[in-house]
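Margin note: ligand = S-adenosylmethionine.
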Amino acid sequence: MTDAQGRIIDYMRISITDRCNLRCKYCMPDDLPSVCHHSILRYEEILRICAAAVGLGIRNFRVTGGEPLVRRGFLDFLTKLKQLPGAESVSITTNGVLLEPYLDDLAAMGLDGINISLDTLNPQTYRELTGTDALDAVLSSIHKAVVANLRVKLNCVPLLGINDRELPEIAALAQTLPVDVRFIELMPTEAGRPFRPVPGERVRNILRERYPDLRPVTEWRGSGPARYEQSDSLLGRIGYIDALTGHFCRACNRIRLTGEGFLKLCLYHDAGISLRELVRSGATVEELQQVMAAAIESKPEHHYFGDAGMQGGIGNMSRIGG
Ligand code: SAM
Ligand code: SF4
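Resulting structure:
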């Protein structure tokens, strides 16, 4: 459907859990309390909301978390979502640690893509940043996902003084593997605030030293916040999500559903509506559609990064799903 700004909204990110097997320091503080199980939507409830979304023209879904792979039954849920009449694409975003044993099943159910988060290639930095010694498992998942013919994108958040020296090495994964490597500007969430971001423009300059022929992908017609570049030396593309310095709100095509059933209309804005009571009170798909359509119509024109007055702040990304 189209919102009041004339933007086509056709994509929903769904967080199926706030829980995670890692504790990336810029995402999720050690002492973050978990949401109680009863407050998290059941899979059937999420699927009913997705059925309503499809009727509104939202046909592309990304399942995230927390870590989506820690929630029991995720494979069955993804399969049902993929089979939902009218759903066009279903992808996941994962830290990749638990991914490998599921790859064949994910390929078989027709998963359209996997985004795997990878901020460092240094085992010690990985351990310090995530609290877990799991870099080898992630790298193995990435290689096997490619072998399983899945479409893979890697997400890296550049952090000054932590992984900024490694960025060319991380980008070079697109040299040996047919994967897109994307650099996401750190957002000032509660956990993210103590870290220092590397602006996208700086990342581009660093990478151009290694790949001087990097140039914008001209035929790229995708929607969403990433801007892609290509180089003759690379099998995959390099993407930049300039969450802070970029101005992509005019092209925004997405809404988010949190694990607790809040329909979040903009990543960095309070606007939205809880669908949980509605879906639990037995609302029909049509009734859900009416409420969702009215909310989406009023999607904020732009985000409020940097606005100290935003009520409640953004919270932490593990609750929203990135
Ligand atoms: N656990 C999964 C993963 O790590 O891919 C999915 C959820 S995680 C919240 C989704 C993405 O959000 C990850 O790529 C992570 O790096 C990113 N993220 C978390 N906190 C962030 C922040 N403050 N700024 C920018 N990206 C952030
Ligand atoms: Fe977990 Fe993903 Fe957040 Fe890391 S970025 S703590 S893996 S939710």
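The chain is about 30% helix and 15% strand.
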